[in-house]
Specification:
alpha/beta
């Protein structure tokens, strides 16, 4: 079997037309170059160089092999350059994020990620926490920004940011922030609309209604945050989501916030232990920086 030493010797002899010049270029002796070509020709079963010509020319078989040999050397150089590069942030990062992050600071994160790590390609998935946790455990994504950490063996996590949960409604429903209570909501028959039924916010809101003996309030749910927003805008119900997501609608007067003591949402980054530490630290440090900045600016 031949290796890259034989291929390199062959390519440079063809390029320079001389065993002597190729030996000088590769800092080898001429007998060493001759030995490499002899091993290569023995492997392919015939001559690759016409030694009778000056400068030396490849044989028909040698011309055919030369095209492939050049490509092999170029590919090898590219691979070595990638491995020797100081920047570990190369290749594809499969990132899963929940909608609250997708509709808040994710655009700024993607822009800065591209600026800091230009050789990285991002493959993005937006889903709920249960779906992203499942993908992470099945190695279908490399990293997940979810509501709470993914608690599993060989999974590492770091906190990202947190947002308050609030109630949002269209002014057309007639509720006032000064006088609103969940009891008042129950009297109108207006439903609450929140995250999917397998989510922590849904379970916490369900528990709150039970504690206040307000089970008669209908609790609708959706896996899509923007479906909740659309339903709230249309007056179908009162949304229970972070108001951060709908700041523009609130500023335009299309939605208002209503008082309710709901648990805040804590978000975390999770990734498998086998992910390169420098890669994980670089990406997650940036996510924490931007997530907490957004949290402060929109508190």
């Amino acid at each position: 079997m031949f290796d890259f030493k034989e291929i390199e010797a062959f390519v440079w002899i063809v390029r320079l037309g001389s065993f002597r010049l190729a030996a000088q270029h590769l800092h080898l002796t001429q007998p060493s170059i001759s030995d490499r070509i002899a091993r290569l020709e023995e492997f392919v079963g015939g001559p690759l160089l016409d030694r009778a010509q000056r400068p030396i020319q490849p044989t028909p078989k040698g011309r055919q092999f030369y095209r492939h040999a050049q490509h092999m050397l170029e590919t090898r150089q590219e691979a070595m350059a990638m491995l020797e590069a100081n920047n570990p942030f190369q290749g594809v990062l499969r990132l899963g994020v929940v909608e609250t992050i997708a509709h808040s600071w994710l655009p700024a994160f993607i822009a800065e990620l591209a600026n800091r790590f230009p050789d990285m390609t991002l493959q993005l998935e937006v889903d709920g926490t249960p779906g992203l946790a499942n993908r992470l455990l099945n190695r279908q994504i490399d990293m997940a920004f979810t509501l709470g950490p993914v608690d599993a063996q060989d999974i590492l996590s770091r906190p990202l940011c947190h947002y308050a949960t609030g109630l949002i409604a269209t002014p057309q429903l007639g509720f006032s922030a000064r006088t609103f209570t969940l009891e008042a909501l129950a009297r109108t028959g207006t439903p609450l609309i929140t995250f999917a039924s397998d989510s922590r916010p849904y379970r916490e809101l369900q528990s709150l209604l039970h504690q206040q003996r307000l089970e008669r309030i209908k609790l609708h749910c959706s896996g899509s945050v923007w479906t909740i927003v659309r339903l709230a805008l249309d007056g179908i119900g009162v949304g229970a989501i972070p108001p951060r997501i709908v700041e523009q609608e609130i500023a335009r007067g299309e939605l208002i916030t209503l008082p309710c003591d709901l648990p805040r949402l804590d978000f975390a980054a999770s990734w498998p232990q086998h992910i390169d530490k420098a890669l994980a630290d670089g990406v997650i440090d940036l996510a924490i920086e931007l997530g907490q900045r957004d949290q402060r600016e929109h508190a």
